[in-house]
Design a protein that fits this description.
The structure is a single chain. With 131 residues, the protein is an alpha/beta fold. The chain has a single domain, classed as 3-Layer(aba) Sandwich (Rossmann fold). It contains 5 helices and 5 strands. The chain has helices at residues 13-27, 39-51, 70-80, 95-105, 117-128; strands at 5-9, 32-36, 56-62, 85-90, 109-112. It has a 5-stranded parallel beta sheet, with helices on both faces. Strand 3 (56-62), helix 3 and strand 4 form a beta-alpha-beta unit. The model has no long low-confidence stretch (mean pLDDT 96).
């Protein structure tokens, strides 16, 4: 059986690399780590993994991305996969966007850029403890 996946979505490659590195250091080989550079790519990744019966257990998504914003993306994911733990990462989300994701997508947490590695790891651990 395949390992569960943590998916990171951000339009800045340096942020994706940083997230992936920090998660791998904290959680090692317990999970697979996938990345996507926008919400549409992320939806494709989610569908491909779902077709292969590989479960995504957690998504860390940026809010401000070209095309679909993170709040809309996480709400769409929640409608299809309500069990996925959702974390939004942002430098500039407005309060109404954060509140909308909390209400419509069961947002676990919103982290603000720049985040600390410790804050990221603790947020992921607390999210995973809900599974």
């Amino acid at each position: 059986m395949s390992k569960p996946v943590i998916l990171c979505v951000d339009d800045e490659k340096v942020i994706l690399d940083s997230l992936k590195t920090q998660l791998q250091l904290a959680f090692g080989n317990a999970y697979l780590y996938e990345v996507a550079e926008d919400a549409n790519d992320a939806l494709e990744v989610i569908n491909e993994l779902n077709e292969e019966s590989i479960s995504i257990i957690l998504i860390v998504s940026d809010w401000l991305m070209p095309g679909m914003k993170g709040d809309e993306f996480l709400i769409r994911v929640h409608q299809q996969f309500p069990a996925i733990i959702k974390v939004m990462l942002t430098g500039q989300a407005d309060e109404s966007a954060i509140e909308r994701v909390k209400q419509q997508a069961n947002l676990h947490c919103c982290l603000f850029k720049p985040w600390s590695e410790e804050e990221l790891v603790e947020t992921i651990k607390s999210g995973l403890s809900k599974l």
